[in-house]
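ARCHIVE CARD
Drawer: 12
Card no.: 0347
Subject: one protein chain, sequence and derived structure
Cross-reference: see card 0346
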Amino acid sequence: MAATLFSVPPQNLATVRELSHAAAQWASRAARANLPAAADDSHSNLGWNDSHFALLSHPLDAEQRLQLGFGFRDCALLWLENGELIDSLSLQGADEAAAKRWCDEQLAAAGLQGTDQAEMPYELPPVDYSGFDGAAAELEVLGAWFGAAQSAIEDLVSHFGGKAVAPALVRCWPHHFDLATLFMLEEGDPETARSVGVGLSPGDGSYAEPYFYCTPWPTPAELPDAPAPMHWHTEGFTSMVCEATRLDESVDLKGMLTSAVEVAHRSLYS
């Protein structure tokens, strides 16, 4: 039976979240080594794929065939061609050297640059993947959170995308590991132009569990009431958030996020 969002308590996902975050960096490294750099760093981001229950890189080759990713259900690095799994490396029992060697072998066989050619803008400390051992249930539940977020945010894009002046794509940003979209509401410098960001963080230094967020930008001078069960977080960043432990199996994620986006949008034009 497929995992549900609450098959494992959300606060018990921190270890597999940290390891998955590290594992997904291999796909981002491959992209940084082989794709032209985008001004917004979007060449390095990842996309959720339900069929493989995985986060995948952008296509890495000129023919748009090859992708590297991390599969939550398999606890493995994945090598795909035209969307089909060609090879994989289980990270259970693997170390970082083995992961690097396997990735570089796939890339070299395809005539692509190895991961040493990636210029990373943030530190990547050494990782011990042994924490994945015996954690298959936690890993699948973490993947289920990404899958649920993908579905809910895609629905938001269908509903609100017409308000945006640029395509609102749903992507995972490997630095913070959040799956998110951004509704740009006007042209101009993103530092000052109005926008609403919506996403799922699988957990971080603020919350040791998955949480959804909705961020109006620039931050309104007066914060409106957040629609329950969301509430305002104002330490370190200002956003409406809802931790996983405030939810249950009956949650309507699309409805919750829709209400939050409507509040955020009104706050920017009031």
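Annotation on reverse: Residues 10-135 form one domain. Residues 155 and 254 are 7 Å apart (CA to CA).
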